[in-house]
């Protein structure tokens, strides 16, 4: 009897202690930390247009940067209460795991290996490869490029998988590799290439800057999901960021998201259908 | 001609960013070289005059630091300190890493220079009753300095070049600024060339300074 009583007391004490620990953990969520600090710290880069780059006015801007502003708006009702920590692509995961940043939004491709190290938010963009040609050129769209077979030359950024990547869309095309982004555009301009194959976001941005001179062939492949990432093990914070991003893509902040999308990728987004939530269709 | 105008126009647009980057590069280098040289003199003295234990400690320090790539030191000082609660900013962490790297080189240079001075001079100084401080200040240091200068200039130039590695941890120095500008206007060749030229100017300045001090400290012949 006594032993049972003691066991019961221990169990009770343990459960109180554990629930206390759970409370303590909740109290130290990154969410509370950020709210107490009064501004959000976002890790991103500064050398990749249209994602995160410095404009002629030396201000950091881009789609990733706008995501940071959206989350800051959700936190403080002020999109400018955000500090951007400049980091190289290699520093994305270390800066999260060592707590240098609250969140990283830096065109980070979601992969299984990375998801073991950091917690990904819901996606905010789907990247893919596209084909861009000169306006009024010999080929009008993807179907014509494909039909032309080996007569077509495609300029692409140097990469181990570049040849396979192009051949996935244009199996017979000749592939010319260049080691800088400006060189693939030059190849297209000078007529050495009929099309360039590169990220759709880069194509969108380049076409915005050179309005009317280029056309998108209208085919995308090689999908990659871009998501922000936070430290593992803080569900509260992850939930908050997910909510902020979700409402930017389908709720009250949709106009902000759509405006940013139009600015950096040149495409108008139709507003989400009103009525039954689109997520459950 | 048109291309040149385009380039010059882009340089004009980016002038502030470039100047800021240049300022950051110069201040990182200056701080790292100054702190590293001071620390290095201490290391050099320890290596030559320390007792057995001190010598062993300094030997370990120089060998480990000199044998580690600067990039590893930079990443270590940025990330390792934050895991023990000391959160250094990228600029501070970068200066610390470069200063430590610089100190190991300067220490080794000074050790070589001091050991090249004949032992008889120290003995003579002792014989006329100079303290260790006086011996070092008036007899050994002036001679060692002449030996050190050319290699010190070399190390200082290395520090300026190593400061480019801080772009990895997000210090907006000249190289990162240049990359930011290139990502906007795609003029990679031109702007990298410009950055290279600016780095050359800094190092040329250091070299001239070294030559000047060499002239000032030369034994009149």
TrEMBL record, chain A:
It comes from the Bacteria. Residues 39-268 form the Solute-binding protein family 3/N-terminal domain. SMART domains: PBPb (SM00062). Transmembrane segments: none annotated. It holds the Pfam family SBP_bac_3. InterPro entries: Bact_solute-bind_prot3, SBP_3_CS, Solute-binding_3/MltF_N. Belongs to the bacterial solute-binding protein 3 family. This is Transporter substrate-binding domain-containing protein. It comes from Ancylobacter crimeensis.
From TrEMBL, chain B:
It is a multi-pass membrane protein. Its main location: membrane. CDD domains: TM_PBP2 (cd06261). Residues 22-210 form the ABC transmembrane type-1 domain. It is found in: Cell inner membrane; Cell membrane. PROSITE patterns: ABC_TM1. The chain crosses the membrane at residues 28-49, 61-81, 186-206. Keywords: Amino-acid transport, Cell membrane, Membrane, Transmembrane, Transmembrane helix, Transport. Belongs to the binding-protein-dependent transport system permease family. HisMQ subfamily. This is Amino acid ABC transporter permease. It comes from Ancylobacter crimeensis. The lineage of its organism: Bacteria, Pseudomonadati, Pseudomonadota, Alphaproteobacteria, Hyphomicrobiales.
């Amino acid at each position: 009897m006594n032993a049972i009583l003691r066991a019961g007391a221990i169990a009770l004490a343990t459960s109180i202690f554990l629930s206390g620990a759970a409370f303590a953990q909740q109290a130290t969520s990154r969410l509370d930390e950020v709210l107490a600090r009064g501004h959000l710290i976002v890790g991103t880069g500064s050398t990749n247009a249209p994602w995160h780059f410095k404009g002629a006015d030396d201000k950091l801007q881009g789609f990733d940067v706008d995501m940071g502003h959206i989350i800051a708006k959700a936190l403080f009702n002020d999109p400018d209460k955000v500090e951007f920590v400049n980091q190289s692509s290699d520093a994305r995961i270390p800066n999260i795991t060592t707590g240098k940043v609250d969140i990283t939004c830096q065109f980070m491709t979601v992969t299984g290996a990375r998801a073991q190290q950091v917690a990904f938010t819901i996606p905010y963009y789907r990247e893919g490869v596209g084909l861009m040609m000169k306006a009024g050129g010999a080929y009008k769209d993807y179907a014509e490029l494909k039909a032309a077979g080996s007569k077509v030359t495609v300029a692409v950024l140097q990469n181990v998988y570049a040849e396979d990547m192009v051949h996935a869309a244009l199996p017979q095309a000749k592939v010319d590799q260049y080691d800088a982004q400006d060189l693939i555009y030059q190849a297209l301009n000078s007529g050495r290439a009929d099309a360039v194959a590169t990220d759709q976001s880069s194509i969108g941005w380049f076409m915005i800057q050179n309005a009317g001179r280029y056309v998108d062939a209208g085919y995308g492949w090689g999908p990659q999901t871009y998501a922000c990432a936070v430290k593992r093990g803080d569900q509260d914070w992850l939930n908050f960021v997910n909510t902020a991003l979700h409402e930017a893509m389908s709720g009250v902040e949709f106009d902000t998201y759509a405006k940013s999308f139009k600015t950096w990728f040149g495409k108008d987004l139709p507003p989400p259908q009103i009525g039954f939530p689109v997520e459950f269709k | 001609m048109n291309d040149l105008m385009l380039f010059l126009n882009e340089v004009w647009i980016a002038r502030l960013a470039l100047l800021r980057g240049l300022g950051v590069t110069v201040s990182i280098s200056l701080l790292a070289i100054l702190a590293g040289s001071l620390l290095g003199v201490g290391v050099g003295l320890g290596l030559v005059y320390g007792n057995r234990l001190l010598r062993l400690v300094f030997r370990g320090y120089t060998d480990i630091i000199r044998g580690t790539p600067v990039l590893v030191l930079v990443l270590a000082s940025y990330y390792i300190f934050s895991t023990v609660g000391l959160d250094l900013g990228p600029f501070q962490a970068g200066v610390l890493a470069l200063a430590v790297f610089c100190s190991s080189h300067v220490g080794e240079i000074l050790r070589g220079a001091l050991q090249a001075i004949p032992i008889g001079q120290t003995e003579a100084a002792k014989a006329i009753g100079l303290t260790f401080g006086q011996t070092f200040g008036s007899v050994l240091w002036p001679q060692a300095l002449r030996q050190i200068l050319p290699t010190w200039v070399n190390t200082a130039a290395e520090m300026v070049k190593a400061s480019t590695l801080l772009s990895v941890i997000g210090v907006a120095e000249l190289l990162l600024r240049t990359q930011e500008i290139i990502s906007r206007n795609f003029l990679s060749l031109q702007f990298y060339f410009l950055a290279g030229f600016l780095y050359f100017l800094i190092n040329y300045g250091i070299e001239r300074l070294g030559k000047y001090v060499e002239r000032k400290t030369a034994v009149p012949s």
